[in-house]
């Protein structure tokens, strides 16, 4: 009898180990070399601009700097831009004309004091807005009407949908009784937690706003744990390592303490809050010795493109936040950032990117951002 009980316990433990291994698979990710010594080409030489939109600048449409823009969603030709500073979603048409805002700063239904992110919810053709203060999900129609508002029993920084009844949330150090010590939660459509995985880094206690996230690209979900170099695909309650970035001598330790963050920001390389996948390219934003860079890697040809001003001064034009929505790549540029570039390189920009030049010369320093739609050669 004792032997049978012992055997039963062993089977249970083996089953638990098998479940754990299935949920986070680390085997053989594609390693992408982003070290300074890697052979790379200029993004400016490979970018093909397809469309440029100047977002209308009015008192009601004001958008903050690109650092606060967490998400751009394109649906039926309209642009839904989530602004973390003004706690709202600004809506523009396909020409950049301001239409209306969804949500605002406040504590009433449909208002936020700590809006974290938004996501398009295909089953209802609606927008979900994730808020940490108060802890809630607000579902809006695309014309801004409140459809539903639900309390969530945990803090989160990001979300993505695998199916109508399977939603992934990124906790990002916001530990709660419901999340425990896990960084990714899987819930049903009623926000009941079904699965938890990825341990919170033990040496860090605060959420890092500029690193890590869940990224929805078409029908696929990806996750980059904060301040790590690995990107996982999320599917069927499991995570599989797909890409791993190698900065060589610029790599940080796998688990460094919060008190070391300033040192590594100044002296090493860290992935920041951008992951892009389009056709054969995957893209990463990263900080290296205090400088912000953007790289795209072609997984078929292994061609590496980087915004390196040493290769091409025009790379400074494209060293900005990038989003993917509706199968399109969108770069967000603040006018005050490119005024000096335009002054010093106007002739080259006019010759190489005439559609961009025509839009840029109409901008004033504190106007709303310009959106650049592009592909890569």
> Measured on Cα atoms, how large is the radius of gyration?
22 Å
Please bin the fraction of helical residues: 10-25%
CATH superfamily: TolB, C-terminal domain
Report low-confidence residues grouped into runs of 5 or more: 1-21
Task: Give the averaged pLDDT, no decimals.
Answer: 87
Provide a descriptive summary of the structure in words:
The protein has 377 residues and is an alpha+beta fold. Mean pLDDT is 87; it is low at 1-21. The chain is globular and about 55 Å long. The strands form seven sheets. Strands 1, 2, 19, 20, 21 and 22 form a six-stranded mixed β-sheet that branches. It starts with a helix and ends with a strand. It has five helices and 29 strands. The protein has helices spanning 2-23, 43-46, 261-267, 335-352, 354-360; strands at residues 24-25, 30-33, 41-42, 47-54, 69-75, 78-83, 88-92, 98-102, 104-105, 111-112, 115-121, 126-132, 135-141, 146-151, 158-163, 166-170, 182-187, 193-199, 213-217, 220-224, 230-235, 238-246, 269-278, 281-288, 291-298, 304-306, 321-325, 328-333, 370-376. Helix 4 (335-352) runs antiparallel to helix 5 (354-360). Helices cover 15% and strands 44% of the residues. It has a single domain (40-376), classed as Neuraminidase (6 Propeller), CATH 2.120.10.30.
List the helices and strands and how they pair.
Blueprint: H1 2-23, E1 24-25, E2 30-33, E3 41-42, H2 43-46, E4 47-54, E5 69-75, E6 78-83, E7 88-92, E8 98-102, E9 104-105, E10 111-112, E11 115-121, E12 126-132, E13 135-141, E14 146-151, E15 158-163, E16 166-170, E17 182-187, E18 193-199, E19 213-217, E20 220-224, E21 230-235, E22 238-246, H3 261-267, E23 269-278, E24 281-288, E25 291-298, E26 304-306, E27 321-325, E28 328-333, H4 335-352, H5 354-360, E29 370-376
Helix pairs in contact: 4-5
